[in-house]
Design brief:
- With 255 residues, the protein is an alpha+beta fold.
- The protein folds into 2 domains: 182 residues, GAF domain (Beta-Lactamase), CATH 3.30.450; 61 residues, Winged helix-like DNA-binding domain superfamily/Winged helix DNA-binding domain (Arc Repressor Mutant, subunit A), CATH 1.10.10.
- It is built from 12 helices and 6 strands.
- A 6-stranded mixed sheet has the order 2-1-6-5-3-4.
- Strand 1 and strand 2 form a beta hairpin.
- Helix 4 runs antiparallel to helix 8.
- The longest helix is centred in the last third of the chain and has 28 residues.
- It is globular.
Length: 255
């Protein structure tokens, strides 16, 4: 196990007095993110505190075997980062199901990398196979009370978390996820009318289908399927169809 082989390295790293626990409660701004831009700013601040170079927030898709992660925002906002694309790919559905069913952080590393969790922190998290090649990452499961489930992921070569920081970051992730989910209601009120066919095409895109797949599923030509996706992208003021899917999910237009 990687967890066992890295125990000595982890002990050396976290015995350093310069790596004292980050006083999150003293430095974290006492405010809610009322816009997506503010949520991105707060997530970037949180990422900086754990030396993460990237972050992504996902909504969990449909229940069961087809469960997927739908990217909502990340460090490349308003675009979509490579990490978000990798973790929302059809090929990582098993990780999406594991994340949706977990209540503890999930972390992964390369065999040649040092563990970035202290020994005590590792007891509160579960090590998994990397869902994205050549990355070190940690995923925090989040949810609203009796509402939507999601995942906030951080990645980077220089991350470092002890037990207290791990717990505090997870709590901050819950707060950020609540803010982003709440924005869905406000965004929905501002959204233009998206037709039933346009929503069907977006929903199938969220399930990982290509334009050819969507056309075949709905009995349309590929040109018509693409036109529906283009229309919905423009109506939602999105930069591409993946961004449109993310905005539609955030607005509750699709599940």
């Amino acid at each position: 196990m990687l967890l066992q082989s890295g125990q000595a390295d982890r002990a050396d790293l976290f015995d350093d007095p310069d790596l004292a626990v980050w006083p999150v409660k003293d430095e974290w701004p006492n405010q809610s993110a009322t816009t997506t831009s503010e949520a991105v700013r707060l997530m970037r601040k949180l990422a900086e505190r754990i030396n993460a170079s990237g972050f992504s927030l996902f909504f969990c898709g449909a229940q069961g075997e087809a469960r997927r992660l739908a990217p909502v925002l990340d460090d490349n906002f308003p675009g979509i980062s490579l990490l978000s694309k990798a973790l929302s790919h059809r090929g990582v559905e098993s990780f999406a199901r594991l994340a949706a069913e977990s209540s503890v952080p999930l972390w992964w590393q390369r065999c040649d990398s040092r563990p970035f969790l202290s020994e005590a922190a590792a007891c509160w998290a579960h090590e998994v196979e990397s869902p994205a090649r050549e990355t070190l990452g940690i995923a925090f499961p989040v949810a609203q009370e009796r509402g939507r489930h999601g995942l906030i992921v951080f990645s980077g070569e220089d991350m470092m978390l002890d037990e207290n920081l791990l717990c505090d970051v997870h709590a901050r992730c819950f707060s950020l996820f609540e803010d982003v989910s709440r924005q869905r209601v406000a965004d929905c009120a501002k959204s233009p009318v998206v037709s039933r066919r346009e929503l069907e095409c977006l929903r199938l895109t969220a399930d990982g289908l290509t334009s050819d797949d969507i056309a075949a599923s709905l009995g349309l030509s590929v040109h018509t399927a693409n036109q529906y996706l283009t229309n919905s992208t423009h109506k939602l003021n999105a930069v591409n169809r993946i961004h449109a899917v993310a905005k539609a999910l955030r607005c509750g237009l699709i599940d």
